[in-house]
Amino acid sequence: MSEAHQFATVVVAAIALGLLLAAVWSAIDGRRSAGGRDHRFAVDRLVLALVLVVALNDAVGGALIAGGRRPADPLHLVYGVAALVTVPVGWWIGGRAWGGRGPSRMGRDVAIGVACILQLAIQVRLVATG
């Protein structure tokens, strides 16, 4: 594994942890203010940062493969794709209307929080299958 690929993995994990904390903070603040206040701006920007860094890391991984360096376990490639789609899918699911109501801010924060936990688990597996 190249140093750039390994460093980007650490950055992804740090952003995912920050996003998890921001989503929890947003959900708690939204609950306390009866939906009047949340931290969607911070959460949305961290989602974008996470997706960007994961995409860049996937590109670095693709360049390594093109250069002839293969991961120790081919399952690493599946986890790389899963890392790219996990948080956007959580964001999409959280923005959906459920039960005939419009989308809720709390539901979106919770869905993103769950996606961050999955993202962190995927990062652990990516390191293990490196």
Q: Can you describe what's shown?
A:
The protein is mostly helical and 130 residues long. It has one domain. Helix content is 78%, strand content 0%. Helix 1 runs antiparallel to helix 2 (40-66), helix 2 runs antiparallel to helix 3 (75-94) and helix 3 packs antiparallel against helix 4 (105-129). The protein starts with a helix and ends with a helix.
Defining traits:
single chain, 130 residues, mainly alpha, elongated
- Overall tally of domains: 1
Structural class comes to: mainly alpha
What best-fitting shape do the alpha-carbon axes yield? elongated
What does the radius of gyration come to? 16 Å
Query: β content, as a range?
Result: under 5%
Distance between the termini: 7 Å
The counted number of beta strands is 0
Total helices: the number is 4
Give the uncertain stretches in residue-range form: none
Order of helices and strands: HHHH
Q: Approximately how much helix is present in the residues?
A: over 70%
- pLDDT average, as an integer? 88
Largest sheet: none
Could you give a quick summary of the protein structure above?
The protein has 130 residues and is mostly helical.
What's the topology here?
Blueprint: H1 3-32, H2 40-66, H3 75-94, H4 105-129
Helix pairs in contact: 1-2, 1-4, 2-3, 3-4
